[in-house]
């Protein structure tokens, strides 16, 4: 197609001739002052981009509390610290769980990361996903175990609440009186509490001019056991023990009375063969 500008003509040369039995045709030519018509600009409206899908916020984790969280064991009874009674119950409360749903609250006692005891109860949340009640576990808390309380509704689990169970402050020597021969044959065990769990405890024993020092780590209840027997020249007298916590600065002392005639197992001053260890719990028996 040819275009013209107003008032001016565009010349067109068009001819056809037979040349040597062939067809020759001239193509249209625009005049010098003529220009081709530009194609019209597209007026099509581009399709709008798909809106980005809104991000779904992550659901908030449920919250859970259990109180009290700190307990003190009973006094040493000759074989272990007395257990803690939970007769007053644990106040347990949670929010952010599914509405009107059963939540299982579990009290677990572990030793070296292995579950030893478990006890559970079930509560039902209200229409907001919350609960607040008192739970009285059937069993108490024993020495040597790490305790935690958890809450779960089958879909979500709240952060566990750790319970601190501490041995009472004090030190006791077993036996408190023994003969010189027994000091060599069976020795003495010193049990002490009131320290910070996991801290280093230094035990210094003084007897008949000899001063000996050993150290060990307090257990999860902040208690240690130190056992020793002596050899050398062992006279009647008193053995004094001082136990000191490296972090807490807590100090416990106790004494042992040694009776009887002097016993000589080896020449020289009395020398203890002792070792400080965390107290070992009398673990509950698990049937199955």
Question: How do the helices and strands line up, and which of them pair or pack?
Answer:
Blueprint: E1 16-19, E2 22-25, E3 63-67, E4 70-72, E5 90-95, E6 102-111, E7 114-124, E8 131-135, E9 146-152, E10 161-166, E11 170-174, E12 177-179, H1 180-185, E13 188-193, E14 200-207, E15 210-217, E16 224-231, E17 233-234, E18 237-245, E19 251-259, E20 263-264, E21 271-278
Please give a structural write-up.
It comes from Leifsonia sp. NPDC080035. The structure is a single chain. This protein has 288 residues and is mainly beta. It has two domains: 63-166, Immunoglobulin-like (Sandwich); 170-278, Immunoglobulin-like. Helix content is 2%, strand content 45%. The chain contains one helix and 21 strands. It has one helix at residues 180-185, and strands at residues 16-19, 22-25, 63-67, 70-72, 90-95, 102-111, 114-124, 131-135, 146-152, 161-166, 170-174, 177-179, 188-193, 200-207, 210-217, 224-231, 233-234, 237-245, 251-259, 263-264, 271-278. The strands form six sheets. Strands 4-10-9-6-7 form a five-stranded mixed beta sheet, with no helix packed on it. A five-stranded mixed beta sheet has the order 12-19-18-14-15. A four-stranded antiparallel beta sheet has the order 11-13-16-21. A hairpin with an 8-residue loop joins strand 9 and strand 10 (161-166). Residues 1-35 and 281-288 have low confidence and may be disordered.
